[in-house]
Amino acid sequence: MNPRKDGFTTAAVLLLLVFATRISAQTPSPNFVDIKPSPQQVEWQDLEFGVIIHFGTNTFLNREWGDGTADPKVFNPQQADPEQWVLAAKTAGARYVVLVAKHHDGFCLWPTEHTAYSVAASPWMGGKGDLVRMTSDAARKHGLRFGVYLSPWDRHDPRYKDQAAYDQYYLSELEELSSRYGELAEFWLDGAGSAGHTYDFKKIVETLRTYQPNTLVFADTGLFEYGDVRWVGNEDGTIPFENWNVIDRHGFLRWRPVEVDTPLRKLHWFWHPNDESSLKSVDELIKTYDESVGRGGQLMLGLAPDNRGLLPDADVVRLKEFGEAIRTRYGKNFALGHLAADENTSNALDGDADTFWSAPTGSHAASLEVEFQKPVTFDHVVTMEWLNEGQHVQKYSIEVWEKSGWKRVAEGEAIGHKKIDSFAPVTASRVRLHILSSTSEAHIREFQLFAVGGNR
Questions:
Q1: How far apart are CA 383 and CA 417, in angstroms?
Q2: Are 227 and 217 in contact (CB under 8 A)?
Q3: Is there a contact between 288 and 299 (Cβ–Cβ < 8 Å)?
Q4: All domains of the chain, ordered by start, with CATH?
Q5: Residue range 205-229, pLDDT digits in tens
Q6: Structure pTM?
Q7: pLDDT tens, residue by residue, 333-373
Q8: Are 148 and 181 in contact (CB under 8 A)?
Q9: What are the CA-CA distances from residue 406 to residues 14, 79, 95 (Å)?
Q10: Where are the beta strands (DSSP E) in 282-356?
């Protein structure tokens, strides 16, 4: 042993440890406000509203949860028309469609090469049909993005009891879906069920990313490291709290915007006969919109084709009514009629979400004011924060000028992607968004004023 060499090595190691300790001490731990979204997350959040479609053997057996024993021959929709589904969703204002390609019963809506339990074994289209292809084509034809749901839980396939065998089967199915149907906007990784099976989520995401580098993965918050989008925690269609896009798990922070899923028919994801009373009213759907999109989240509305393969007429009408109501409700933005302002201010009042107002550099409080030639009456304000550099607004108020001072009509602790504030009607010629606290200079994409009044 060479004492000089050993001594030199020990000293070098000690110096490196001291240096590393000093660097660590000087480097602050990440804070919520330091985390930024990926470009893919920014684009996805701008979609705001999508639909998820449940259709399968359950549709023909009056079930919500299939047990994997259904005969594929029961699946025989004589009028299956995904274009009808897509067009109905589009009238409601949806911008993307997610198809449940395989639910927990294991029945596949595309002719997979890895199991006989699919549409290929059904009488529908002589076993030659492919609902994933038909739905993805219809979505793209009409300008909507497309995604898939592939249930990890499988109550049919015997390989499910064999960890390695089933994992390979699932990955093979995922490879088909992610490589054959074009770009996917979203991949739903549902956490329901396990029956003792431990899923290899790391490998699942690795496989997806091989073919779909830009797809956002929806997952429960508990699957923190594997998801890009988080579940809100309920199926009621509401975000029940101030919404921050960054979440913390065991000291690790990550940007994970929230998606709110709820069915068009109360408590029913699949179609059921004699179920007309479950259809949600337009007022209920508007409330859902305001408490999901209007609280900075993403709305995912569940649609269920019937045993013909069509959305029921009542559902199509209701979707159209919903879309028309939202467009009427938020169709006339008074801020567009503001008096001349500097370019920076105008960027938040121009109805263009690609421009934004910036508070003074380094500021932690600021005001964005809009002035009108004549007083306007309004009762709702829509505010959008520019999130590319992170979420910064911590507290704000909306105020109107009355005689000789500002009066607060609404306030909140987060804006995020989009915040809808409602209040009793007010009339004023000067209105401002008062940023009371922000972690750095605030950036506001849009500040819009609406008179909802009797518009539902």
A1: 8
A2: yes
A3: yes
A4: 34-329 (3.20.20.80), 334-450 (2.60.120.260)
A5: 999 999 999 999 999 887 778 899 9
A6: 0.91
A7: 999 999 999 999 999 999 999 999 999 999 999 999 999 99
A8: yes
A9: 62, 60, 39
A10: 298-303
